[in-house]
Amino acid sequence: MDLSALENDGYQVVPSVIPPEEIPALLQGSVFPVKAEQAGPALLGGGTAKAIADTATFLKEQGKIDQALTDYAPYVDARFVATATATN
């Protein structure tokens, strides 16, 4: 695989220490939602903001953070996925 384009863009390319034959097992069970699913209510349409709020509340209760917002929706934006879905 030619990674020179990434290197030319300033990324540092580090070879994986994982043998290629082990990668399918590592990815087993992973879910990669399509654009429409990403923009839907379960993810960027509300689910992600709720998950962030729930995590922040948990971390606050555990004493790991000092404060948590009640709403993270202003920081979760589906417009780029929605635009990409509409144009492709």
Task: Produce the secondary structure layout.
Elements: H1 4-8, H2 23-27, H3 35-39, H4 47-61, H5 79-87
Describe the protein's architecture and organization.
It is a single chain. The chain has about 90 residues and is mainly alpha-helical. It has a domain at about 35-88. Helix content is about 45%, strand content about 0%. The protein has 5 helices and no strands. The protein has helices at about 5-10, 25, 35-40, 45-60, 80-85. The radius of gyration is 18 Å and the shape is extended. The mean pLDDT is about 90.
What is the terminal-to-terminal distance?
Answer: 26 Å
Tell me the Rg in angstroms.
18 Å
Structural class: mainly alpha
Number of strands: 0
Task: Sum up the structure in keywords.
extended; 5 helices; mainly alpha; 88 residues
Quick overview:
The protein is an all-alpha fold. It has helices spanning 4-8, 23-27, 35-39, 47-61, 79-87.
